[in-house]
Amino acid sequence: MTDDKVFIEVNCQQKNIEGERICGDVFLSSKVREENRVVVVLSDGMGHGVKANVLATLTATMALNFTKEHKEPEKIAEIIMNTLPVCSERKMSYSTFTIVDINLNGQTTIIEYDNPRTVVMRGERFQELWWTPVVMNSEKNRGKEIQICSFSPQKEDRIILCSDGVTQSGMGTEKFPFGWGREKLIEYALDQVKQNR
After folding, report:
1. pLDDT (tens digit, 9 = 90+) per residue, 10-36?
2. Number of other residues whose CB lies within 10 A of the CB of residue 21
3. What is the radius of gyration, based on Cα positions, of the chain?
4. pLDDT band for position 88 (50/70/90)?
5. How many C-beta atoms lie closer than 10 Å to residue 101's C-beta?
6. Which of 129, 141, 158, 172 has the smallest CB count inside 10 Å?
């Protein structure tokens, strides 16, 4: 896709937990003009509030910078997982991330760790992607798994990423005992695109 009139629009919507002044999810984006790339990252820190925001900010910042530097996905995940401080209460370090590296002259690559699966819309339909699981082998992170996929972007593609705050919304209610789920997210996205292309 080398059309000079093609551009990438990035948008983020967040809602804090009631009573919290700060969000535990962090979204960052950056243009790499000389390479015709846009990199976006969503990270969800463990818990909510300030502690979650610190973990998510650290994760998102590292993910963004390492992706811009063309580091391998496994290396990015390894560095992030080894850098996060260990929570004194839970005795673990944890932050999810989704990285989207969009190259208008080639491939779009998505790397996920423990966030809900990214949804891609192509025009007015849901686009299924082929994901490759990569299992970490290092001593500290053995068994942790990241998911990677690549595809060629087209005009009017929409890439929707979210934290589990969206897919778990309504959990425990009579209508959504297990939360809203990814299926409802796809259904909602399809409906929104059909109503307002």
Report:
1. 999 988 888 878 888 999 999 999 999
2. 8
3. 17
4. low
5. 21
6. 172
Enumerate the H helices of the chain as residue ranges. Answer: 49-68, 73-83, 164-167, 181-195
> CA-to-CA distance for 78 and 62, rounded, in angstroms?
11
Give 122: exposed, middle or buried? Use CB within 10 Å, 0-12, 13-18, 19+.
middle
Tokens 């590292």 locate to: 62
What confidence score (pLDDT) does residue 18 get? Answer: 80
| Comparison of pLDDT for 135 and 18, the residue scoring more | 135
Q: Alpha-carbon distance 101 to 6, whole Å?
A: 16
Q: 156: phi > 0 → left, psi -120 to 50 → alpha, else beta; which?
A: left
First-to-last C-alpha distance (Å) of the chain: 21
Query: pLDDT confidence of 155, banded at 50, 70, 90?
Result: confident
pTM above 0.90, yes or no: yes
Cβ atoms of 161 and 138 within 8 Å: the answer is no
